[in-house]
Design brief:
The protein has about 325 residues and is mostly beta strands. It contains three helices and 25 strands. The strands form four sheets. Strands 3, 5, 6, 11, 13, 15, 18, 19, 20, 21 and 25 form an eleven-stranded mixed β-sheet that branches. Strands 1, 2, 4, 7, 8, 9, 10 and 12 form an eight-stranded antiparallel β-sheet that branches. It has a four-stranded antiparallel β-sheet with strand order 14-22-16-17, with no helix packed on it. The relative contact order is 0.21. InterPro entries: DUF2961 (IPR021345). This is DUF2961 domain-containing protein.
Length: about 325
């Protein structure tokens, strides 16, 4: 169906996103394929007047945790999205460019695609009524290059459309015997649409996937949605295939859920030094709430509570105004090992 909308695209070659605003070079020339972000500085990638919707984002170049992506909707003072670029795309272990098989791990889902070589793609729709602004901060100590294109359409947006949000959390390690918080402090009407998670084992060679996922809706004192284990929440079962016959975790990447990458050379049964990248997007089954939402994930194995490293990004839509996001850790604290 042909819609009454106008496509826009912001990129290094067309940083203002206007019609006919791309390169003035001739055929087979590159004038400005990348933007250099100096150490300690922030650049604006998108500044668009609404109404409209962002439909696709692609990034490559330096895409590690030194880069912080922020998104602001309709001139709200503080960001609705704030996360390291790598973690936002489910790649919190950004210094590990190959998995245990020596390959680039591929996240092949409906909402995000991480292509070989770290081509980051997002297909979350991000509507706005008045204005959309996306920035990238370089918290590293050297200049870095970023390749990007962010596309969407100027069009009418329903008044009840929710605004896209995402927030970063980490505990290195999780406090033993205490649950890990994926997200809390959400206030307002909306729907939770997913989480990406990185887990790092801390030398305890036992099962790590018995932690239960709990979702608390509105003012409910106890969880309304309660999964029986970590591998169950992320669509797997029985230790992600690490059973007594195969004795090796198996990766998988589906439309909405998966464990798409494992780092660590040792394939020993429950090897203590492996790292895992997982995701679950609630697109077919969004979790709706009226005024509050909170999600937790226990860090447990067969032998009880553990002390592994957990890092996550939660994604949801809600009405504005929204509450400020939890402040990010320092760049040094954020480094994944």
């Amino acid at each position: 169906m042909i819609q009454n909308s106008k496509t826009f695209a912001f990129s290094a070659e067309n940083p203002t996103g206007v019609r006919a605003g791309g390169s003035r070079g001739g055929d087979c020339t590159k004038l400005r394929p990348t933007v250099t972000i100096p150490a300690g500085e922030t650049v604006t990638l998108v500044d668009a007047a609404g109404p409209g919707v962002i439909q696709h984002m692609w990034f490559t170049g330096y895409v590690g945790h030194h880069f912080i992506i922020r998104m602001y909707w309709d001139d709200q003072e503080y960001p609705s999205v704030e996360a390291p670029l790598s973690a936002f795309f489910g790649c919190a272990y950004d210094e590990n460019f190959v998995d245990r098989d020596g390959k680039y791990p591929v996240l092949n889902s409906a909402m995000m695609l991480v292509a070989p070589g770290r081509g980051y793609n997002s297909y979350f729709e991000m509507p706005f009524h008045k204005r959309a602004r996306i920035t990238m901060e370089n918290r590293g100590d050297k200049n870095e290059n970023l390749y990007y294109i962010i596309t969407g359409a100027y069009q009418e947006i329903p008044a009840e459309a929710g605004y896209f949000h995402a927030t970063y959390r980490q505990e290195h390690p999780v406090q033993k015997g205490h649950t890990y918080t994926i997200v809390d402090g959400i206030e307002g009407k909306g729907q939770f649409v997913g989480v990406t998670l990185a887990t790092g084992m801390n030398g305890n060679n036992t099962c790590w996937v018995e932690g239960e996922a709990r979702m608390y809706l509105d003012d409910d004192p106890y969880p309304s949605i309660h999964y029986t284990g970590t591998e169950d929440y992320f669509g797997g079962s029985y230790g992600f295939g690490n059973d007594i016959i195969i004795k090796s975790y198996q990766t998988f990447s589906g439309l909405y859920t998966g464990m798409y990458a494992i780092y660590g050379d040792n394939r020993e049964f429950y090897n203590g030094q492996q790292r895992f990248l997982l995701y679950h997007f609630h697109i077919a089954d969004p979790i709706r709430f009226e005024n509050k939402f909170r999600m937790t994930l226990d860090n447990m194995g067969w032998t009880g509570p553990r002390y592994d490293d957990y890092t996550s990004v939660a994604y949801w839509y809600q009405a504005l105004p929204s509450a400020p996001l939890m402040p990010l850790p320092t760049d040094a604290e954020m480094c994944m090992r």
